[in-house]
Design goal:
Layout lengths: L1 H8 L2 E15 L11 E14 L4 E12 L7 E15 L2 E10 L32 E10 L2 E8 L28 E2 L9 E10 L2 E11 L4 E5 L4 E6 L1 E13 L2 E13 L6 E15 L8 E11 L11 E10 L7 E9 L5 E10 L4 E12 L5 H4 L6 E9 L1
Parallel strand pairs: 8-12
Antiparallel strand pairs: 1-2, 1-21, 2-3, 3-4, 4-5, 5-6, 6-7, 7-9, 9-10, 10-13, 11-12, 13-14, 14-15, 15-16, 16-17, 17-18, 18-19, 19-20, 20-21
Length: 396
């Protein structure tokens, strides 16, 4: 007992986290039976951090969302649960993470093409920015020559989707029961995926070159049965990515390029496709001789599959303006328009953030279709889902 107590005393413990209360108010009547005009959700995301006296630490971040309307939106996850250790080999610094973690690759604002390690948690954020925790072995080597990250990913996480009572869903709800999900490889969810990324800087240019080989994070969706249900199919893919950021004073040039090779939707022949997002942002500091900053953003995304692309940004222009007051409440506002160049679809997004106290903050997000095109199926299915989201966050 004495040895165990001594081991525990060598670890220091810190904790922090957030509690979010969110309401989404939809402006139009729902398109599909079972949906409601509004919903209320509660999200808890605490973090426990244990640091040892040596070169080791453990981070644990569980996640829980409870939604009053959509049972599929109510879910739990482990965002992080990993052990980290580090050291030096001559002039090379190494790190090793074992467990569940989240990794982000990319530079673009509107479309994260090369970001593939973690699965999208689509019910937590319909924009696709929130990710599920991914089991991994993650090793890092860093030196003056750059940084090399190597990943072994032993377990696949299927994507989350809204249920039949959820808003922002497809016309036919997507089946999320694990027994219905299909995998190309016989190992299914236990196929071992591999990934790597090399990053460095050359003067004002930051770049990353990445590679992935394994089970796709994007499912191919197929209707089956009568009445039909939509089933998720996950193919094996190979992906090479390049992300760039060029810093020239107040201007940031950004680009992501992706080449992906996978199985065709029919047959067994390998098919490839390329996609890119390119653009930048320009910041005007102290605008109108005030403490505020104005940042202007513009990006163009294109997927050469166009109408057959699995993502909605197949040929779209994104323009936005972000106004930051730089006041005591960190008040900022963003307005963004996405214009589809292939379809007559145009959307407007508005966002407002402000800290109310040292522990509480307010966020408002609005989404509205400025124009709708029946030919754009992904958007047409959610044409009545214009909404306002109000979130109160308590941080501890």
């Amino acid at each position: 007992m004495g040895v165990r107590a001594n081991e525990i005393s060598q670890w220091s413990i810190e904790h922090w986290g957030t509690v979010d209360l969110e309401s989404r108010l939809f402006f139009d009547e729902p398109l599909y039976a079972g949906q409601k005009r509004n919903d209320l959700s509660l999200t808890l995301k605490p973090t426990l951090y244990f640091e040892g006296s040596g070169n080791g630490s453990f981070t644990f971040t569980p996640f829980l969302k409870v939604d009053g309307s959509d049972s599929k939106r109510t879910h739990a996850d482990i965002r992080e649960a990993y052990y980290l250790t580090y050291g030096f080999l001559d002039d090379i610094e190494w790190e090793l993470r074992l467990g569940i973690d989240q990794v982000f690759w990319g530079t673009a604002e509107s479309n994260h093409l090369v970001n593939i390690v973690n699965q999208t948690d689509l019910v937590d954020d319909s924009g696709g920015d929130e990710k599920l925790g991914q089991p991994m072995i993650h090793g890092t080597l860093s030196g003056e020559w750059g940084t090399l990250d190597l990943f072994v990913l032993p377990f696949h996480r299927p994507r989350t989707f809204p249920g039949s009572a959820g808003r922002l869903r497809s016309a036919i709800p997507i089946e999320t029961n694990k027994s219905s999900i299909k995998y190309e490889h016989s190992s299914g969810r236990r196929h071992i995926d591999l990934a790597a990324r090399f990053s460095n800087s050359i003067g004002p240019l930051d770049f990353g070159v990445s590679a992935f080989r394994g089970t796709s994070r994007e499912p191919h969706l197929t209707p089956v049965g009568s009445p039909p249900v939509i089933v998720q199919n996950y193919n094996l893919i190979e992906q090479v990515g390049l992300d760039l950021q060029l810093t020239l004073g107040a201007f940031l040039g950004k680009a992501e390029l992706r080449s992906r090779n996978g199985f065709a939707e029919t047959g067994s022949d390998k098919v490839s496709h390329n996609a890119f997002v390119v653009g930048g942002e320009y910041s005007i500091y102290g605008i109108f001789e005030s403490d505020a900053d104005l940042t202007l953003l513009a990006e163009w995304s294109q997927d050469e599959r166009r109408g057959q692309a699995s993502a909605s940004l197949q040929n779209d222009v994104f323009v936005a303006a972000r106004y930051a007051l730089n006041d005591i409440g960190d008040t900022n506002m963003t307005a963004a328009i996405v214009d589809d160049l292939d379809y007559d679809t145009r959307t407007l997004s508005l966002e407002f953030n402000r800290r109310l106290t040292d522990s509480a903050s307010l966020s408002l997000e609005a989404f509205k279709f400025l124009s709708k095109d029946m030919s754009d199926l992904s958007s047409w299915q959610i044409r009545n889902d214009d909404h306002l989201a109000v979130q109160i966050r308590y941080s501890f």
